[in-house]
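QA checklist item 7 of 12: single-chain prediction sanity check.
[x] sequence parsed
[x] length recorded as 389
[x] structure emitted
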Amino acid sequence: MDKVRYGIIGIGKQGSNYAKRLFKGMDKNGVLAAVCDVKEDRRQWATDNLAGVKVFEDYKEMLASDAIDAVIIDTPHYAHPGIAIEALDAGKHVLCDKPAGVFTKAVREAAEHGKTKPELKFGILYNQRTNKVYVKAKEIIDSGRLGNLKRIVWIITNWYRPQAYYDQGGWRGTWAGEGGGVLINQDPHQLDLFTWLAGKPITKVWSVTKTVGRKINVENDVTAVCEFEGGAEGVFITSTHDAPGTNRLEITGDGGKMIIEGGSDVTMKLTFVENLVPEPQFSAENKVFMGKIPTKTYRYKLNLIDMIKGAIEQQHINVIRNFSLVVLGKEDKLIAPYADGLNGLTFSNAIHLSGWTGKQVVYPIDEEAYIAELNKRVDEEKNGGVKQA
């Protein structure tokens, strides 16, 4: 094939953005061939705005057609793993939007199923992995300059969502509709980056999750502490009710500290204070009372062209471009294989489970216990509706 023919399942807010970018030719190796949505108004929008693109109501019909080579899944969260399996069985390459799913058992099953179809590419839209600031941070960490990980702390509270946000759709703010709140809706990218940048598996988690000031059932305020293999610690703080909010990531190692902060994806900056002598070595050799390690500071931020390009294109199209190139055999490696979605989702599930039970959660997490606790909340919601703020 010369170009990958995409079909998008779900053309709501995000799915329609992908549709418009592909329709405009922003991926020279991909083309929008079909879209699908159960809602008539969205199908009508596609008919009116995407001339020549096939429009389906039932995604199964789209998968059975020969109109597409690959699908982008942008449905409600619970449906992601199941639709992915069906698409793979239909012989389609799959690119799934975040999150990979709501609970790890379903995502694990989908990832394992993907391994039985090695001829098909199976990825997840972790667009933040294309942010050049995070790419630079990963480069520094992988080079060994940061040394052994000591601590990673992320305060990500600039997700402010007023009550009107939750009131716009019946699925928002509910366990049955979303499967969670800030952790499953706003934070999947940060949870992925948290584990991706740390580069070490998490071993245990304890957390506090709660709902503050909103008429919703799901969490909008989280403080989580984790321990990584080797003893390093992590702290993840997030909310959708802080105003003003903060986005600040600190990663500390024997070799220094990195700080990433900024109000948006295009204005982020990275500061790396590198120890010229590794901390353990300095402590062992230094003879000066209250001696200080000599350091050198490096600063990195996007240039003006990158800022303008990022603001216009958004990073998602870069993941789609990479996916097309891998499908066509022009690149070897996906930015984010679907199986990587397990890392951040496992952390998310562990945070929920600890917050629900008030107990420390040790890896591997008890997947059945998580599902039971989630279903308990879904059932309570069906019987009691939305709780009052």
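[x] summary fact logged: The mean pLDDT is 94.
[ ] second reviewer sign-off
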